[in-house]
Amino acid sequence: MGKAYKFGDHINTDLIIPARYLNVSDPQALAAHCMEDADATFAGRFKPGDVLVGGEDFGCGSSREHAPIAIRACGASCVIAASYARIFFRNSINIGLPIFACREAAEAIADGDEVEVDLQSGLIRDLTSGRAFQAEPFSPYVDKIIRSGGLMNLIRREKHE
User: Fold this and answer.
1) Neighbour order of strands in the sheet with 99-101
2) Per residue in 69-89, pLDDT tens?
C-alpha cells in the first residue's frame, strides 16, 4: 500500500530521468533525480511502497534503462498507467519493476490517493475512493522475472540451480 503520485500523458524518459544524469550508474543516485524535471519535489516526497500513476504513452522517448531503474530505486511498488511505450514496458520488466496497464485505474486514481496493488492478481484498489480495478496479471514467466528482481537476476539464479 502506498500513496499515488499522478502524472499526465506522454511522460517521456527524459522527464523520468533527465539526460544530464545518464552518466550516472548508481541506482540510488538516479533515484535522487527521478521525475525532477516534471516535479522538483518528487524524490524528496516519494516513499518506498508508493505508486507512480501515469496516463497515455508513459515512458515514451528514448530507450534508456535509466528511467525504470530510477523509478524502482525510489522504492516504487509499481507503476500504473493507461498505456506505455513498448521499450519502457520491456525495460521495466527486465529490471524487475512491476508495471500495469489499466486505463480505468490510471484515470480514476487521484494524486495522493492511497493505493494497494496485488502484484499476483493485478487487482488495484484505490483505498481513498473505495474503487477497485483489474489489470491483466503477469504471465507466469514475467511474474518469475519480477519476483527475481529482474531478468539478469533470474538468469543468474537459474544458472546456479
Assistant:
1) 99-101, 78-81, 51-54, 2-6, 114-118, 123-126, 131-134
2) 999 999 999 999 999 999 999
Secondary structure of residue 139 in the 3-state scheme = coil
Q: Which domain holds residue 43?
A: 2-159
Residue 51 CA to residue 67 CA, distance in Å, equals 15
What's the predicted TM-score (pTM) here? Answer: 0.95
What mean pLDDT do residues 10-26 have? 94
Burial 16-31 (b: 16+ CB within 10 A, else e): bbbeeeeebeeeeebb
Question: How many angstroms separate the CA atoms of 116 and 96, rounded?
Answer: 18
Cell of 111: 494524486
Domain count along the chain: 1
Nearest to 95 by CA among 147, 52, 150: 150
What per-residue confidence (pLDDT) applies to 42?
Answer: 96
CATH number reported for the structural domain that contains residue 122 in this entry: 3.20.19.10
CB of 76 closer than 8 Å to CB of 97: yes
Query: Looking at the chain, which runs of residues are DSSP E strands?
Result: 2-6, 51-54, 78-81, 99-101, 114-118, 123-126, 131-134
